[in-house]
Write a structure and sequence with these properties.
Number of strands of chain B: 12
Largest sheet of chain A: 7 strands, mixed
Radius of gyration of chain A: 13 Å
Shape of chain B: globular
Structural class of chain B: mainly beta
Number of helices of chain A: 0
Radius of gyration of chain B: 14 Å
Oligomer: heterodimer
Order of helices and strands of chain B: EEEEEEEEEEEE
Number of helices of chain B: 0
Distance between the termini of chain A: 36 Å
Strand content of chain B: over 45%
Chain lengths: 114, 116
């Protein structure tokens, strides 16, 4: 069964460093998303991406965040200068276009900023 | 903006029994989708069931069913014959059916414990 794959599963980084979280969405999906879940809290939308551009972003997704689809398979989230409060589980998701609305999630990347 | 409320932070059920998790939402839209996602200790988000707002019939997936009350903006999840593997966080989520927004709006979740 096709699935969304995220790497790494766990990343530890020092405050101020840049991190790139990687995702391989399901191959025939056209919409890509990043969500964040701070430990013990609800899942929050960060950004959606369609047709090689951001289609929607939340107020969390400020200038230190960026997304890219560098090739035909990968979808990345870059955090330019990490802060302690960026520590969270980051989920990538993808969905088909049209009237099939389900988003399928990857297993997540746990980011720890120290 | 749409909001999703799960009023039960924690629930417990005996194995083989039935449990219902509550969810209410607020929206001014008429076209939307509702979902229940399961998050086991591994923390992966797994889709359990989906409901289209334009469908009156409640969705069912094996032991999982929903009670969708559109006028009341209520979307509860019923788990029948609960199994130990059902223990997880359960999140209710809303997605607009209108063009322009594909994002999911999640509730805070309900932690379900299944007792043997």
């Amino acid at each position: 069964e096709p699935e969304v794959t995220q790497t790494p599963s766990h990343q530890v980084t020092q405050m101020g460093q840049e991190v790139i979280l990687r995702c391989v969405p399901i191959s025939n999906h056209l919409y890509f998303y990043w969500y964040r879940q701070i430990l013990g809290q609800k899942v929050e939308f960060l950004v959606s991406f369609y047709n090689n551009e951001i289609s929607e972003k939340s107020e969390i997704f400020d200038d230190q965040f960026s997304v890219e689809r560098p090739d035909g398979s990968n979808f990345t989230l870059k955090i330019r200068s990490t802060k302690l409060e960026d520590s969270a589980m980051y989920f990538c998701a993808s969905s088909e276009a049209g009237r099939v609305p389900e988003a399928f999630f990857g297993q997540g990347t746990r980011l720890t900023v120290v | 903006a749409q909001t999703v409320t799960q009023s039960q932070p924690e629930m417990s059920v005996q194995e083989a029994e039935t449990v219902t998790l509550s969810c209410t939402y607020d929206t001014s839209e008429s076209d939307y989708y509702l979902f229940w996602y399961k998050q086991p200790p591994s923390r992966q988000m797994i889709l359990v069931i989906r409901q289209e707002a334009y469908k009156q019939q409640n969705a069912t997936e094996n032991r999982f069913s929903v009670n969708f009350q559109k006028a009341a903006k209520s979307f509860s999840l019923k788990i029948s014959d609960s199994q130990l593997g059902d223990a997880a966080m359960y999140f209710c989520a809303y997605r607009s059916g209108q063009g322009g927004s594909e994002k999911l709006v999640f509730g805070k979740g309900t932690k379900l414990t299944v007792n043997p």
